[in-house]
Amino acid sequence: MSEDPLTVDVRAWLWLLGAFALLMTGYFTLPLEWLGDRRPVLSWSLFVAALTGLSALLLGKIAGVIRGTAKRPVFWLAFLICLAVTIFSATYYVLGAHKAEFAGLETRLDALYFTVVTLATVGYGDITPAGQAARLVVVLQIGYNFVFIAAAAGTASRAIRGNVEKRIHRQG
Q1: Residue 1: CB atoms within 10 Å
Q2: From CA 134, how far away is CA 141, in angstroms rounded?
Q3: What is d(CA 163, CA 12) in angstroms, rounded to the nearest whole number?
């Protein structure tokens, strides 16, 4: 890649697009029906493990940006945010199979939509958590959004701003 920090890194963008496509392909095709009420311990264990691993990855990238050692932090942080959306969407879909947990959540697209609406704090009200497990996961997602997603977005902004400042400094 060129020394110019604002040069478009086509390979990185293609990697991010491909990674997102793989996440969505996996989300829409994996047999998530295998989880849920029939295997509650496995389901909750996978959810906790996925969030723990994701948190560690996010914290590692954030620390790398702060230390100045992170490679392509904006792309990695964008990918990790997409991974968080996928994890929460899958969890909502699995919970939604039990009709007492959600009102209006029927499909994987509904679960993805609900995750994005919750992340964006829009809350249209067309899908609502009704059961205690669903409400717990929504509370966890909101907390996760405040702590990890906000930190990731702020860190990505910091990395972009740092690159712009380097470019201005070199030109000046």
Answers
A1: 11
A2: 11
A3: 16
Q: Distance (Å, rounded) from C-alpha 22 to C-alpha 19?
A: 5
Quickly tell me which residue has 């948190």 as its tokens.
Answer: 55
Give Cα separations from 60 to 15, 47, 163 (angstroms): 20, 20, 20
38, amino acid identity: R
Residue 103 makes CB contacts below 8 A (sequence gap 6+) with 127, 128, 130
Q: Which two tokens stand for residue 133?
A: 């497990």
121-156 burial, b for 16+ CB within 10 Å, e for fewer?
eeeeeebebebebbeebbeebeebbeebbeebeebb
Tell me how far apart the alpha carbons of residues 24 and 36 are, in angstroms, rounded to a whole number: 20
Scanning the structure block, which residue is given the tokens 């920090």?
Answer: 5
At 85-143, the pLDDT tens digits run: 999 999 999 999 888 899 999 999 999 999 999 998 888 889 999 999 999 999 999 99
The residue to which tokens 């990890």 are assigned: 148
